[in-house]
Amino acid sequence: MSDTALQFGNRELVLVSNREPYVHERVDGEIQVVRPTGGLTSALDPMMASTGGTWVAWGSGDGDDEMSDEDGCVRVPPESPSYDLKRVSLTDEQVQNYYYGYSNQVLWPMCHSDTAKMTPKPEFWEHYRETNEHFADAIREQVDPSEAVIWFQDYHFALAPRRIREECPDAFCMQFWHIPWPSWDVLQSCPEYEELLDGLLANDLLGFHTDRYCENFLDCVERAFDTEVDHEAGWVRYEGRTIQVESFPLGIDAAERRQLAGSTEADDAWESLRETYALDADRLAVGVDRLDYTKGIEQRLAALERLWEKYPERRETFTYVQKASESRSQIDDYQRVKENVTSEVERINDRFGTATWQPIVYIDDHLSPAALAALYRESDMVLVSSLRDGMNLVAKEFVASQVDDPGVLVLSELVGAHEALGEWAITVHPNDTEAFADSIEEALEMDESERANRMEPLRASVEENDIEAWKNSVLQSASKVLSRKETTAQRDTTGTTTEYTNE
Ligand code: F6P
Q1: Rounded to whole angstroms, how far apart are CA atoms 201 and 158?
Q2: Domain of 216?
Q3: Which protein residue has the closest C-alpha to ligand 1 atom 7?
């Protein structure tokens, strides 16, 4: 019997995300299966493969329709099918306004507390609402919500739970918000804040990465509505229902990363990387990011420039490798990050580079998982300098890949991962360039025993709080909330009332 059958009785698990785990793309007339690089889909696909059920997502591939049945469904994973992927077709106008518009030019900057980048436009909101309804209707076409556990992922679906609840009051809905939840002052800058909160409160269980984001959310609810909120136990009473709000720090498949980093495949990948990019310096640092303004890449480059200025002995001996992936590039702010980062890399390389040494190696080619594992393993440190980040899994991937001489985690205090890992990292503030440069120097000077002393607890924390632990704690909480809800419903029909506590 599958995990979900054990935990949810006969209810089927329906996972809903914007990105699909498998995209059918037409390449040179042939249809190929592409797996998106995003952390969300790769983390949740193994879970769906083991539990079964349905995954509902935007069918973004130009070969998707051809490979799906008349309901938009295809069995996946392609190599050993075990669950249904239901693709939701979106028009170009919906993609522009719901995905590039409201999701990524209003909610994304707002949740990362960068209100100056928010561009709320009526058409963004209109399409966001309409597309959320479209997804909710697609879910209802596929399953009866009163016989399912519907698990929404992320900020693309703040309104869909409300639509489901309106149509089916008995539905069990839950949502995990993969990015930060901001403070009340920031949320208020969004004209639609009441509708957003109301949509999310149509869930039965709401998850965030950290306690801080839960606290921010509960505070926002308390200020926006005249309703009962229990900060200690983490619940809200809203429209006669109780909504549990809890933190579930997302992890990675640490064991898989560790094995990959120690594999001969990684050894071979390292040889070829070293040759291709001339990575011959004694010391290496690495950064791995989507080209997103929240990642603080420009701030990191400023700190590196200061380091080579202030500590000239680090020239010729220390190289920084920036692995960058293009992201949401139809949005001007993302184009600007790409342009700024590439021009800053060029300028810094012109300033300090010599005939035999390039200070910054910029890689925007695709790297295989083995090559990435090798790059992490061989680097003396990782630089994570986000200005705001829900969790940041790069920090965890680096730690899990330290199978040899341990490297140093240099971590911004503004990322969710700092809550659990900050104690053993070198903490930086991305905007304090001088101190950031000194921190890189400190990491370069750190002796092996201190590096090992820090890496041991980091490794233990990343391995213990891995993706499996995350999945189990979310599903266990969901199963508790569901059984409490069913008991309450039963008692209500027999006329007795129940007190809600968080045991
Ligand atoms: O961190 C939030 C997130 O939506 C992830 O879930 C995802 O992997 C990443 O951003 C990339 O986003 P997009 O789907 O817009 O490329």
Answers
A1: 9
A2: 8-250+470-488
A3: 38
